[in-house]
Design a protein that fits this description.
The radius of gyration is 15 Å and the shape is globular. Strands 1-2-3-4-5 form a five-stranded mixed β-sheet, with helices on both faces. Helices cover 33% and strands 27% of the residues. It is of the alpha+beta class and 150 residues long. The chain has helices at residues 14-22, 37-48, 76-79, 99-113, 128-136; strands at 5-8, 52-59, 62-73, 81-90, 116-121. The protein is built from five helices and five strands.
Length: 150
């Protein structure tokens, strides 16, 4: 597979991103491109924050994969920065092509470029295939996560 083009997402990418979020066993129950207004509001907040990188990998300038990288400053680990990867999705027509691994490598490289000492992510317990994918990339399932819905 040729190297991918990764760029910051633009407002006109939001619909394609939401479609990728919704085209998933979990996303289908919580995301829908039927009403883009809440997603566009969230996009504006993300775009305004320099520690947030919502990116797309493109083919013919059309989004075919996405993720959000958040740079988190903290006191722990001697004031280390962390890269937090979220909402990794690859369009169904491109799954299994190596695109996801290339996009994840971009996020790791960008985290390193920004001075992060650690890259982390969370993944729903039901996503066994995603867990195998992340482990192949060198991620270690070292922690247990908790959520409190508000």
């Amino acid at each position: 597979m040729p190297p991918i083009a990764v760029r910051r997402a633009r407002p006109d990418d939001v619909e394609a991103i939401v479609q990728m979020l919704a085209d998933d066993q979990l996303g289908a129950t919580r995301d829908s491109p039927a009403d883009l207004e809440p997603y566009l509001r969230a996009f504006e907040t993300i775009a305004a924050d320099p520690n947030q990188l919502l990116v797309v990998a493109t083919s013919n300038d059309q989004p075919v994969a996405t993720l959000q990288l958040t740079i988190i400053p903290g006191l722990a680990r001697r004031g280390a920065l962390r890269g937090q990867i979220e909402a990794v999705r690859v369009h169904r027509d491109h799954r299994g092509s190596g695109l996801g691994a290339q996009l994840m490598q971009w996020a790791i490289d960008e985290s390193r470029r920004r001075g992060c000492n650690l890259v982390q992510l969370t993944s729903d317990k039901t996503r066994a295939a995603a867990h195998r994918f992340y482990e192949r990339l060198g991620f270690v399932p070292s922690h247990t996560g908790f959520k409190l819905h508000l």
